[in-house]
Every structure is written in C-alpha cells, then in structure tokens.
Amino acid sequence: MNTFLEILKPDFLLHHAVWGSVVAGFVCPLVGVYVLLRRLIFWGVALPQVSAAGISCAFMLEALGLNMITTGEHHEKHLAIVGAVVFTLGAIILLAGLERRASAPSEGRLGVLYVLAAALSILFVSWNASGENEMLGLLKGEIVSISETDFHAMLDLFGLAAAAILLFQREFTLVSFDRDMAMTLGRSVNVWDGALFLIIGLTISLGVMTVGPLVIFGFLVIPPMAALPWARGMMSFSLLSSIIGGLSAFSGFYVSYTRDLPLGPMVVCVACAAYLLSLSAERILRRSP
Description:
The protein is mainly α. The protein has helices at residues 2-8, 15-37, 41-63, 75-101, 106-126, 132-139, 148-167, 169-177, 179-184, 189-211, 213-227, 234-259, 263-287. Helix 2 packs antiparallel against helix 12 (234-259), helix 3 packs antiparallel against helix 11 and helix 11 runs parallel beside helix 13.
C-alpha cells in the first residue's frame, strides 16, 4: 500500500514514466477501436515499426551533418519526434493511396512495409554507431529523462487526439462503417478519412516515443478486444477500451516497479490478462441460465 501511495505522489521520481504510460494507455485504445473496426490490425503492427525507423533515420541524418532542427538541451527528443511523425504520416499516406488503387492484397503490402521498416531501423542505427545508445533508448520508449516542458506538451497532444476522437466520433464511425451512406448524407469522406488517419499517425508516433513500438501495438489492439464483448455502442466501446488500457498501463507499471521487471513487456502481459479475464467472464455469463 505504501508503494502504491508513493507512485501517486507528484514528486515521485518516475512520475514521467508512470503518467506518460497511463495517458498512452488511455488514449491509444481510442484510436485502436477504429484500427480494429476498420480491419487495420496489420497497420497497428507495421506503423510502430515505421515510426521506429523514422527515429533511427533522424539520428543517422544528424550524424551525417544534416541537422533538421536547431540544437538545444533536449535536442535528441525533438529530433526523434520529427523523424517518427514524418515517417509514420508518410507511410499512412502511401498505404491509403495504395488501398484504393492497388490490386494486391493489403496484408502483403503491410508485410513488405513492416519488414522494410525493421531492416532500415537496423541499418540506420548501424550507420550512426556514436548515437546507438541514445537511439536504442528512444526506440524502447524511454521517457524518464524527458523534460517537464516536453512531458506536458506530450500530454497536451495526447489530450487533443482523445478529444478529437470523441468529439467527431459520429463522423469517424460513419465513414468507417458505411462510406456510401456518409456520402449520401453529404459528408466529405476523404476529409474525415484523412483526419482519422492523421490522428492515428500522430498517436502512434507519440506513443512509440512514450512506451515503445511493442506496447503501442498492444494498446491499439488488446484493450479494444477486451472491451468488445461488453460494448453496447461506439461510445461505450471507446470508453471501456480506454479504461482497460489506462488500468493495464498503471498496473503494469506497479508490477514492473515493485518486482524490478521490464516495463513494456509487463504492461502488455497485464493487458493480455485483462483480455483473457474478459473472455472468461463472457463465456461464464453465456453458459449461465
């Protein structure tokens, strides 16, 4: 109990790590709801890896003398964010364009993108050996050393993403489920699709910087899967997914901190435990008279 109260204190040494993880746990499942319903699960696999490739590419370019941003106290964090956002949004634009024009299965394209991004991440890191430790830390989502200003900026961006998802939920749901109906009702399908993809890209980019690619994929998929059997509408689906993600992040951090275990894998395991608990409860209720 004392440890639990210690974690909740504002002056807790790792408060950036715990609250950054919790906020990512609350926000990413809101995006994951649409990733799941639009059958974009493989996007959730590929895009975090693309974001990681963007981070390593940004550091490689800096090592070659191509500084994209001005230097400063937290130059590395800003550089990584730029690389992650540029690569992720570029990949989303490419995938969205190919989705409408290409005849090959989308799973194949995403598989190629994932493998290419993973290979490039390794190559970019190998070409910048001097910054390897810093890059590896960022790729794992290390936010302990993030500045107070950057930390609050990250929270603000996550908050804007969550507000946009909830505020425009009707439009996003309509274009996701029935594009023809959306067009009949006068909705600009391409605009709303673009807005949704932009939110997905920014959320994944910030999430990779916060907790790493593995945890982001877990947040995008596992909480919505756990909430799906209990949802009675899009709003309840979104809120249940967000709550499960946030609680999984905090519980995972608590176990990781008290047992001295890696944070990311522990958060994913806790989320999976919540998913299994949800499935078990659903089966028990289904069998009961």
